[in-house]
């Protein structure tokens, strides 16, 4: 619903140098500039207008906002601009889908013939029907865990085959392929074309997704579409498509619209790219950067190896410069002299000990000989044994007729006792 605060005043005189329809003929046409001036003068009489509707486009450029607003009951839309100075006074959370009322003033640019509205004030009325439905779906899918990071599949570092779902001969296809092939010329694509807006968007995109997901050679799938009116991006917030993406076994990248566009596909996909060009940069490594990284790593490895080898050579030279290694025979000579002295001392000590032990042995031998019965026998004494080996110590032991074994200095002989003899 649109309401006006001011309206043109009927019968008000047109601005100077304006042109009336009956003042121009085929023979005397007016100029384009004069016609534009007349239109601008007429529009300027409208003044400001309060209008109610739903924001369908919101693009920020150098601090200014360029957007569109649609009627809540019909498809009628208007374009509007918000200058940076005005934007500072507006609510900071204004976004696509918001139900708002705005004070606008018509602008007509005479140089280009473009018609737009400048916004001087804008405030929320409530969520638009479209945003309200999306928010309910967003809350539902979030509660089911479809937005959880834990369920998102990692994107391969270097996909050999990229499945690309986009409009046939679209700018999005050119952007993805061109940027990907510039970064890695050997990358290959499996194309699956689908309508990117309208009633055919969702079923065709789901069909293309299932076909690429069933192809085992496809490493990652990109769903790409260029920018446009948010109304045209609604298919990428459709619940059927979102659940198909969540069920896919192949990683899916969402590359829909521009940076400010945010369909629900961005939340369900395994990776969100702000634009189709950004998608190519996010999933394909730059061969120049990789070669530079490899060259840097090789340079660092060469430097580390050179430093290590140089350090080891310096240590080896330091060891070799020591006297013991510069003339190793000097150590042997010094040790040999010390060893000779030790051997000489050992021999002298051993000789002295042998002589002392020899003298001790001679002394013991002499003492033993002195105490030995053999020495006594050698001096003429004898030892008498009975037949049972008992030494005769008492003459009474040798009764008459008893056999006796007599041992002398050299040998023994047998005798028979004649009995004890009285001592004189």
Q: Your description of this structure?
A:
This protein has 424 residues and is α/β, with parallel strands linked by helices. It folds into four domains: 21-127, Nucleic acid-binding proteins (OB fold (Dihydrolipoamide Acetyltransferase, E2P)); 133-285, Rossmann fold; 286-325; 376-416, no CATH class. The protein contains twelve helices and 13 strands. It has helices at 32-44, 84-87, 129-143, 171-183, 201-213, 239-247, 265-268, 276-283, 287-320, 323-326, 328-371, 373-378, and strands at residues 48-61, 64-70, 77-82, 98-109, 114-127, 161-166, 188-193, 220-225, 252-256, 271-272, 383-385, 403-407, 412-416. It is rod-shaped. Residues 1-29 are annotated as: Disordered. Residues 146-364 form the Exonuclease VII large subunit C-terminal domain. InterPro entries: Exonuc_VII_L (IPR003753), Exonuc_VII_lsu_C (IPR020579), OB-fold_nuc-bd_dom (IPR025824).
Provide the descriptors you would attach to this structure in a database record:
alpha/beta; 424 residues; OB fold (Dihydrolipoamide Acetyltransferase, E2P); 5-stranded mixed beta barrel; disordered N terminus; Rossmann fold; single chain; 12 helices; 5-stranded parallel β-sheet
Q: What form results from the Cα inertia axes? A: rod-shaped
Q: On the 0-100 scale, what is the average pLDDT?
A: 84
- Percent strand equals 15-25%
Distance separating the two termini: 179 Å
Count of DSSP E strands? 13
Query: Order of strands side by side in the largest beta sheet?
Result: 1-2-3-5-4
CATH architecture of the largest domain: 3-Layer(aba) Sandwich
Question: How much helix, percentage-wise, in residues?
Answer: 25-40%
Taken in chain order, the helices and strands follow as HEEEHEEHEHEHEHEHEHHHHHEEE
Give the domain tally: 4
* Radius of gyration (Å): 60 Å
Structural class: alpha/beta
CATH topology of the largest domain: Rossmann fold
Low-confidence stretches: 1-12
Number of helices: 12
| CATH superfamily descriptor of the largest domain | Succinyl-CoA synthetase domains
CATH C-level of the largest domain: Alpha Beta
Largest sheet: 5 strands, mixed, barrel
Function: Bidirectionally degrades single-stranded DNA into large acid-insoluble oligonucleotides, which are then degraded further into small acid-soluble oligonucleotides.
Subunit structure: Heterooligomer composed of large and small subunits.
Protein name: Exodeoxyribonuclease 7 large subunit
Catalytic activity: Exonucleolytic cleavage in either 5'- to 3'- or 3'- to 5'-direction to yield nucleoside 5'-phosphates
């Amino acid at each position: 619903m649109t309401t006006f605060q001011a309206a043109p005043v009927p019968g008000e005189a047109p601005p100077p140098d304006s042109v009336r329809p009956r003042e121009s003929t085929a023979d005397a046409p007016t100029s384009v500039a004069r016609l534009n001036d007349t239109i601008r003068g007429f529009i300027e009489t409208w003044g400001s207008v309060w209008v109610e509707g739903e924001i369908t486009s919101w693009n920020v450029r150098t601090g200014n906002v360029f957007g569109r607003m649609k009627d809540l009951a019909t498809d009628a839309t208007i374009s509007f601009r918000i200058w940076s100075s005005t934007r500072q006074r507006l609510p900071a959370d204004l976004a696509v889908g918001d139900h708002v009322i705005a004070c606008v003033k018509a602008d007509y640019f005479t140089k280009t013939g473009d018609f737009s509205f400048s916004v001087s004030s804008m405030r929320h009325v409530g969520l638009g029907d479209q945003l309200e439905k999306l928010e309910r779906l967003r809350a539902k899918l979030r509660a089911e865990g479809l937005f959880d990071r834990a369920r998102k599949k990692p994107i391969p570092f270097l996909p050999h085959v990229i499945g690309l779902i986009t409009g046939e001969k679209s700018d999005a296809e050119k952007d993805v392929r061109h940027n990907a092939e510039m970064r890695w010329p050997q990358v290959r694509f499996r194309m699956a074309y689908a309508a990117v807006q309208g009633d055919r968007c969702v079923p065709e995109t789901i069909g293309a997704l299932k076909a690429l997901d069933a192809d085992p050679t496809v490493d990652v799938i990109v769903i790409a579409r260029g920018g446009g009116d948010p109304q045209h991006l609604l298919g990428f917030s459709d619940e059927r498509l979102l659940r198909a993406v969540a069920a896919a076994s192949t990683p899916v990248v969402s590359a829909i619209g521009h940076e400010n566009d945010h369909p629900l596909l961005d939340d369900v996909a395994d990776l969100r790219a702000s634009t189709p060009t950004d998608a190519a940069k996010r999933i394909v490594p730059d061969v120049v950067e990789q070669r530079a990284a490899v060259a840097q790593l090789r340079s660092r490895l060469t430097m580390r190896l050179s430093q290590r080898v140089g350090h080891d050579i310096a240590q080896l030279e330091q060891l070799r410069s020591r006297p013991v290694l510069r003339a190793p025979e000097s150590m042997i000579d010094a040790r040999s002299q010390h060893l000779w002295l030790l051997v000489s001392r050992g021999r002298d000590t051993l000789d002295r000990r042998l002589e002392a032990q020899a003298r001790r042995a001679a002394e013991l031998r002499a003492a033993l000989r002195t105490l030995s019965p053999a020495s006594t026998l050698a001096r003429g004494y004898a030892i008498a044994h009975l037949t049972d080996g008992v030494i005769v110590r008492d003459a009474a032991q040798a009764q008459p007729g008893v056999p006796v074994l007599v041992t002398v200095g050299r040998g023994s002989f047998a005798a028979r006792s004649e009995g004890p003899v009285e001592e004189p």
